[in-house]
Amino acid sequence: MTAQFFSWPVAGFRTITLLSDADEEVEAAWVLYRRNRAAVAVIWTKTDLIAVDPSPDTEEPHWVDGSLVADDDTTLRTTPEAPCQWRRHREGV
Length: 93
Description:
Elements: E1 10-20, E2 25-35, E3 38-44, E4 49-53, E5 63-65, E6 75-76, E7 86-88
Parallel strand pairs: 1-6
Antiparallel strand pairs: 1-2, 2-3, 3-4, 4-5, 5-7
């Protein structure tokens, strides 16, 4: 996967609300980029890329940035850690 998907057409968009570790609501967007048979789904806040799913049409778990997402994989950190700590999402948490 390369960053080229950012230039692909947007095939889906949904506004979502995430919670921070300070129990504050954070506006975010789930965006599906699609080109031919390839697709990438991402979750953005206003300033950060939170999650990336390079295979949204499969059951493979997506990736989250551990610097922005707490260890439970569902809560955003109020204070980010060292940048770019990408890891697979722990399914079933």
